[in-house]
Amino acid sequence: MREREILDRSPQPYPSQSTRNWNPRLQLRTSNTRPTVKVGAPSMTRAVLNLLVIISVSHFRQLHSPTNIILLSLAVSDFLVGLLLLPLEIYRNTTCWYLGEIMCAVYYYLGCQIPFVSIGNIILISVDRYVAICHPLHYPTRITAVRVKLCVFLCWLWYGLYSIFYIQDQIIHLIKPDKDVSCLGQCSIIFSYVTGVADLILTFIIPVTAIVLLYMRVFVVAVIQARSMRSHVTFVSVQHPSKVKAKRSELKAARTLGVLVFTYLLCFCPLYCYTFIDINLIDTSNQYLLTGLFYFNSCLNPVIYTLFYPWFRKAVKLIITLQILKPDSCVTNIL
């Protein structure tokens, strides 16, 4: 089977060995010490920012809406990037790997699952906004909290199982150790060109195409609705003021989440696109920029919430001042 080779230049106790690796997420693991530290230095900041989102949505009952449940799932995946993925990446790229083969498998498993779950959450957000804007009358019945929780659970379960596919060789090696392929202090993964192409289609082309098509439709309908509201605002506001407020709220939510989706694609797509064009990513100076951009997204979402969501600013204030420790703080009017 035809395979492409990439040189693993992370520090090793032995001369560098050739590893076959086409997955762009896994290529981020092959860099020298300085750039990796620059990429991973704010890992705790990412964790803290997303922890604020997790506490806000989980604690305050008014925020337990279907859309916010998806945002909560996205915050959890971004939180895990800062808490687990980046520290492990920094360790692997700044010293020899002495955490053992089990932790090596866990490291690569997280490196696949967490980005997968993030893109899955973005798809769910796009579907949520599509139904809310394009089929508003059906939204309360189709997009319920129970259904969204089930979709989020299935998203984590599916990508959790799918990510096992990428470490199957390491699992087999753990069951039946092969001393000939072992190298003390090295943590690498091997898979074929065909596997890389399948990964590109399943985790990039199909999801991104679906997201773009859904939000293009949302954008068109939102523009039409906005024009309609402006032309009939006087009559409708007198006869049905609650409907006007609801429509404006949905359009504002679509705009805010559209910014979130756009920034995610802006950080997510360049790495995949460049890897598709130039497979030997680690031999180019663009690696550091693309790596930083890829991981930078995990701390962008809380910033977006701060800029566009007054409820998040209010929730953070209550969290920082420890007001959430008071009895019945979960029923605070935060919207």
TrEMBL record:
Membrane-crossing residue ranges in chain numbering: 69-86, 106-127, 148-167, 200-224, 257-277, 289-312
Pfam families the record matches: 7tm_1
GO annotation, cellular component aspect: plasma membrane
Annotated region (Disordered), positions in chain: 1-22
Keywords for this protein: Cell membrane, G-protein coupled receptor, Membrane, Receptor, Transducer, Transmembrane, Transmembrane helix
GO molecular function: trace-amine receptor activity
Membrane topology, from the record: Multi-pass membrane protein
InterPro entries to which the protein is assigned, alphabetical: GPCR_Rhodpsn, GPCR_Rhodpsn_7TM, TAAR
Domain called G-protein coupled receptors family 1 profile: residue spans: 49-305
CDD domains found in the cross-reference section: 7tmA_TAARs
Location in the cell: Cell membrane
GO BP of this protein: G protein-coupled receptor signaling pathway
UniProt similarity note: Belongs to the G-protein coupled receptor 1 family.
Name of protein: G-protein coupled receptors family 1 profile domain-containing protein
